[in-house]
Specification:
The protein is of the alpha+beta class. Helix content is 67%, strand content 9%. A four-stranded antiparallel β-sheet has the order 1-2-3-4, with no helix packed on it. A hairpin with a 4-residue loop joins β2 and β3. The chain is elongated, with a radius of gyration of 19 Å.
């Protein structure tokens, strides 16, 4: 079997580069909001939360939020809504990782590709695909922040503070 010559590359299309940049930044916003959710659940200062969650992955943050919320809130509607947001966050982060933690390359004299799921080469993502994912991540971030600051999650946390 003849081996393919694969060369690393960066997407040539400036619009793909820009969409990837937005995607990465939006995910950074999500990670920060996950860190602030831990702050709220654990009644930490911003500084203590940032120190406590420093260099933690989104996966680790989601797992900690799940654990802290179950322990602090018990079974309630706010917990169920939070768990659904965490599930959406996991799916979006997983999809984002397909674009940010894989190989972008091309076969000699071939088109640019990415090494996708199951290590199968596939075409580069399109700008609309990247934008759709960035928008989903932005939506999750906004919903989580709203829940944490003003919604049922905030109310449930306040109730446990009074106990």
């Amino acid at each position: 079997m003849k081996q393919k010559m694969i060369l690393f590359s960066v997407p040539e299309d400036k619009n793909v580069q820009a969409a990837l940049g937005v995607l990465v930044i939006r995910h950074g916003h999500l990670e920060y909001t996950l860190r602030m959710t831990i702050k709220s659940l654990c009644a930490l200062s911003i500084q203590d939360a940032l120190i406590d969650t420093n260099k933690k992955t989104a996966k680790t943050l989601r797992e900690r939020i799940k654990k802290e919320a179950k322990n602090r809130l018990g079974k309630c509607a706010a917990l169920q809504k939070l768990l659904k947001l965490l599930e959406r966050s996991w799916k979006a982060s997983d999809e984002r990782n397909l674009y940010c933690h894989i190989v972008w390359a091309y076969e000699l004299d071939g088109p640019q590709q990415i090494l996708g799921k199951n290590f199968i080469w596939r075409p580069l993502p399109t700008v609309p695909e990247l934008e759709k994912l960035a928008n989903e991540i932005e939506s999750i971030t906004e919903e989580l922040n709203e829940e944490r600051l003003h919604g049922p999650l905030s109310e449930a946390i306040q109730k446990t503070n009074k106990r």
